[in-house]
Amino acid sequence: MTNLLDLQPDVKARQGECVPVLLPVALDQTYDYLAPPEGVPPPGSFVLVPFGPQSRIGIVWDEPRGTPAKPIDPAKLKAVTGTLDAPPLPVLSLRFAEWIAGYTLAPLGMVVRMMMSAREVFEPQKPRFGVTIVEGAAMPPRMTPARQRVLDIASDGLIRAKSSLAQEAACTTGVVDGLITAGCLVEAAIPQKRCPIPEPHHRTIELSEDQERAVMALRAAVDGGTFAVTLLDGVTGSGKTEVYYEAVARALERGRQVLIMLPEIALTSQFMGRFQDRFGCPPVEWHSALSGPERGRIWRGVATGEARVVVGARSALFLPYTDLGLIVVDEEHDGGFKQDDRVHYQARDMAVVRASLGRFSVVLASATPSIESHVNARTGRYNHVVLPGRFSGTELPEIEAIDLRREPPEKGRWLAPPLVEGITETLARGQQSLLFLNRRGYAPLTLCQKCGHRFECPQCTAWLVEHRFRKKLNCHHCGFSLPIPEKCPSCGEADKLTACGPGVERVAEEVAERFPEARIELLSSDLIPGLTEMRRVIERIERHEADIIIGTQLVAKGHHFPDLNLVGIVDGDLGLAQGADPRAGERTFQLLHQVTGRAGRAFARGRGLIQTHLPDHPVMAAIIHGDREAFLEREIAQRQAGLLPPYGRLAALIVSSRDKQAAEMIARDIAHRAPPAEQIRILGPTEAPIAIIRGRHRWRLLAKARRDIDIQNYLRAWLSRMPPIKGDVRLSVDIDPYSFL
Ligand SMILES: Nc1ncnc2c1ncn2[C@@H]1O[C@H](COP(=O)(O)OP(=O)(O)OP(=O)(O)O)[C@@H](O)[C@H]1O
Ligand SMILES: [Zn+2]
């Protein structure tokens, strides 16, 4: 029998080799494992560990986190089964993950999962093989035209994948194989693609006086070598990009990595071209359309420091930068920076947090900064750098309202006479017009004229949107789709289904009828298959290969179309109707200002025509008179009075379930258990405006607190009073919510 005393020293030794490992799952705690024989891996290392019945990849944490449900018998610890050869996450990334988890109340494991979004990194690195010519080899015994073509192409000595060589030579891979057998070609490892190295001084341009001043301020912030936030606030077309490029150059000179965040990375071919002009090579791009191997390569490049400048969507914030020294958030006001899925975070705000942890400078750029950033600039928390005029010297566009109550379009049409006139004139002058409507598809609602039947999504509280070009009725919430029927499914009558209201496809149809001679381009994400095609359309517009452009918000952001002179807003009121949303006014102001800001950027002053039923609405009036200050004053005063962000904190709790009663019951129970607090108001529970999504019934609660209250602490205390939620009921917490639907 083993003597217990004999065992003890062994157990102690084993305890000393304990490693806390965090797993990328919905848990907030680390688990202890025995270190591998070679010793405790450094923090941030990726290791393989047994977890339940599976083997999973986890991250070595520097300290244990959370309390295990029951104390673990050290003798029963399982061992780390392997250390992966992926570069470890920098310790700063671990701190960043903890910060986000603490702030958003998301499980730390889910935050870390966002940092592991390149699966290829964790797989063994396999070299890819290609073929290359054998110098001085004899000609193959049997020469054919196909073989000759292959040898001609390969004569440059490059290593190519077999398939691409065959494709270039217009033959089968069999021909290539034949030449390998004949000893003319040989297999060789394809060298890893390297990240290009941008040169800070590749090309410098002459800056305007205003730009020069702004650049000095940004450079000083970078040189300061400490945490600083600068709001780069410049009207549309003022040349903000050129200005922050100088800050990028400075950070590069200092040997630091740079991240430029853009809301709509898919649409930035123009941006990439400008970057290349300035720095001599394209930046490293990070977005969802990358292939698996590309993701792996870039993730590694960022971790090793080979990638110097990354341009990416919000997820680029979670790459493993070794020496990040500057973040630029372009179009910082954009709602696309908020993620409303799993971990609810606002990437612009998290960029500021990342900069503060890394003690470096962050630049927030916009022509229509968020109210939050304005207030921070006013109170001196952020530096405020202003570019007051357009670089080209042209004035900002002249904006007019078309009062639809007085000048409505003809029946069944959507463009009012003054807008049609405007387009006609612009066409005659050989310039481009842009029509903006933030609604995909042909019509937002289809109904039967005989029985009144309306097409509704079977899984969501939403009408089905007609997409006539694709011949489908679609739900924009869950993706449900139905071929457009010929007969009404309710009364069986044929030819009685009518489309109600316009979407961009319907506007395009009207434009084609009215201007048959014009070249039309329709830009809507659902009609364009992929990134490359989307970029091609944008380039066609830039080259003036379209006269009239019709688009959703894809066209609103950041583009520079020199010949675009007229912007028409088909429905200016669309965003104002969202009652419960405290940012509805702000968002409408930003969107209308940005879209109209596409007009007249390069040459003559542009025009913006806004079709509206509410020309006197304060937001509309501010847009029409170009009076941003009036809008800001009013909006800031309202936020202050209502304790709305940034003067107050909001947190939404969303309960959902397939079972209607269960969702309501749990929501009420949660409300019941709210700890009393003078400084915090709980609103709800109420059924969500979109009561059902994907078959799940939804209830909402909103907690509202003064700015100085730690709302996270309150929520943690509150939620810890809840018994574990059972069944399919889900509770999600959304700190600083942007969506109230
Ligand atoms: N110093 C400069 N020299 C030459 N061209 C410039 C300079 N600064 C800006 N430009 C040009 O002016 C145009 C507008 O600049 P840019 O796109 O940077 O403006 P922006 O402020 O980012 O606009 P928006 O907010 O509307 O996206 C671009 O075509 C840009 O190349
Ligand atoms: Zn649906």
Automatic annotation (TrEMBL):
Protein source organism: Filomicrobium insigne
Assembly with partners or alone: Component of the replication restart primosome.
InterPro entries: DEAD/DEAH_box_helicase_dom, Helicase_ATP-bd, Helicase_C-like, P-loop_NTPase, PriA, PriA_3primeBD, PriA_3primeBD_sf, PriA_C
Cofactors named for this entry: Zn(2+)
Sites where the protein binds Zn(2+) 1: 448, 451, 488, 491
Metal-binding found in the keyword field: yes
GN (gene name): priA
Protein name: Replication restart protein PriA
Highest taxon of source: Bacteria
NCBIfam families in UniProt: priA, PRK05580.2-2
Family statement drawn from the similarity comment of this UniProt entry: Belongs to the helicase family. PriA subfamily.
Ranges where the Helicase ATP-binding domain occurs: 230-387
PANTHER family: PRIMOSOMAL PROTEIN N (PTHR30580)
Keyword flag Nucleotide-binding: yes
Reaction it catalyzes: ATP + H2O = ADP + phosphate + H(+); Couples ATP hydrolysis with the unwinding of duplex DNA by translocating in the 3'-5' direction
UniProt keyword list: ATP-binding, DNA replication, DNA-binding, Helicase, Hydrolase, Isomerase, Metal-binding, Nucleotide-binding, Primosome, Zinc
